Amino acid sequence: MKRNQKIKLYLFLAMFAGAVIFAILFPRLTLPFGFAYILYLMAKPFTVKLTTGSKKQRFIYFCIMLVGVSFMFFPLFATLYNMDTDFGKFSAQLPEAQKILQDKVFGLKVKVFDQFGFKLKLDPVNYVMAKIESQGADFLNHIPDYLSAMFEWMLLVPLFLWFFFMESRKFSQGLLEAIPNPIFEKSYVLFSQFNTKFGEYIIAKFIEATILGTLVTLGLLIVGFPYPFILGFVAGVTNILPYIGPVIGFVPAFFIALLSKDPNVSMLGMVVIYTLANLIDMILVFPLLVSKIVNLHPIVVVVSIIIGSQLGGIVGMIVIIPFIAFFKLLFKEIYKDLSVQL
């Protein structure tokens, strides 16, 4: 490698390291920037379809896209429409549910003491309620901070979106020109593959979440289970998290069925609905939409989700998977080059 190329490579690596450090030090800028970039990658295929082809083709594609978007947002609108009623019922039943849980825990303590002579000192119900109260108070105290962050995002996300749609080509060209020649070709291919896979993954997960949430909502409506829209929405949103999401989404429905005194509320019917919805997801939806995009081992996915939750909370848990898939591809290419050189 020539001296000029080495200098260019070192400068590029220094710029890359600086960008990573900047992203870590200034999350208030990088998080809305990343969110806007995700929206851009999701919208890019649709904008290409809507701006190319004949008028008839564009109109047909617009109608198809409108139906698809309406289908995706229907669970959200239905949840918001019924949220006031469902939360009113839930708030009214919360003290009774707390009393039932306390009675069950007390009965468990009595059984353990009678059979083993061991006195349980755990009080999970009061502990959870105290946590909820403290978290609620903490949330109220931080409302000004949340509102400030929300206004920042409302300002920055559209600004970054405008930049991506209007200036992304020039920015990409400038970035590619900064890449040293020896790694230019592979960098270009990897960057293009990452953009494509990342956008496809996010779209696929949203479609998968919509399908599962709709199935759960319709199933709970059929069996007459309480809070079907909220539970369906929770099941869909948590399903965005691979493997552990369905379990998290099932927990609220399980406790509602466990604590309900209504004879029409069927635990078995609820379990069947969730089982069928997740089977359809695992057998049909996930293999067709998601698994071919990331192609990662389940253990790698679970560990990645844990790392993502530590780095970026819920958002980190969602977006970490395509990044891990990208690094897997990157390491494969590096290993391939090293093998050829050796």
TrEMBL record:
User: What lineage does the source organism belong to?
Assistant: Bacteria, Pseudomonadati, Bdellovibrionota, Bacteriovoracia, Bacteriovoracales
The superkingdom listed in its UniProt entry is Bacteria
Pfam families, per the entry: AI-2E_transport
**What family does the Swiss-Prot or TrEMBL record give for this protein?**
Belongs to the autoinducer-2 exporter (AI-2E) (TC 2.A.86) family.
Report keywords, A-Z. Cell membrane, Membrane, Transmembrane, Transmembrane helix, Transport
What organism does the UniProt record list as the source? Peredibacter starrii
Which locations, inside or outside the cell, does it occupy? Answer: Cell membrane
What's the protein called, per UniProt?
AI-2E family transporter
- Segments passing through the bilayer: 7-25, 31-47, 59-81, 146-165, 211-234, 240-259, 271-290, 296-327
What topology does it adopt in the membrane?
Answer: Multi-pass membrane protein
**InterPro entries per the UniProt record, alphabetical:** AI-2E-like
GO biological process per UniProt: transmembrane transport
Q: Give an example GO cellular component term for this record.
A: plasma membrane
